[in-house]
C-alpha cells in the first residue's frame, strides 16, 4: 500500500469526511522521483464544527502521527466544515517550493 493510500484510509476511518483529497505534491519539491514525502490534504468533516484551525490541524496530525514519523515530511492541510466547504468551493493551490536543494552549493 502506498503512503498516499494509507493517509486516505486513515483520514476516512478517523474523520468520516464528506470530501477528501490527498494529493502527492512531492514532485514539486527537491526529492527523488516517485517520492511520497509532501502531501496536500483537503478534508471536510463534521468533526471540525466548533474547532479553530489549529485544533483541526492537531487532530489531523494526531491521526497521521505514524506517517509523519516514517517518511512524510510535510502536509499542506486545508480543513473545512461542510458549510465552510460550500462557501469556499475549493482549496487554494499550493505555492511552488522555495526551499533549496541539498545539491545546491552555497558559497
Number of domains: 1
Order of helical and strand elements: HEEHHEH
CATH third-tier fold name: GMP Synthetase, Chain A, domain 3
Secondary-structure arrangement, i.e. CATH architecture: 2-Layer Sandwich
Helicity range = 25-40%
Rg calc:
15 Å
Overall mean pLDDT: 84
Q: What features would you describe in this structure?
A:
This protein is of the alpha+beta class. The protein has one domain: BolA-like (GMP Synthetase, Chain A, domain 3, 2-Layer Sandwich). The chain contains four helices and three strands; from the N terminus they run H-E-E-H-H-E-H. A three-stranded mixed sheet has the order 1-2-3. The longest helix is centred in the first third of the chain and has 13 residues, at 3-15. The protein is globular. The protein starts with a helix and ends in a 19-residue tail after the last helix.
Task: Identify the notable features of this structure and list them briefly.
alpha+beta; 3-stranded mixed beta sheet; 4 helices; GMP Synthetase, Chain A, domain 3; 107 residues
Brief description of this entry?
This protein is α+β, with helices and mostly antiparallel strands and 107 residues long. The protein has helices at 3-15, 53-63, 65-69, 82-88; strands spanning 19-24, 38-44, 74-80.
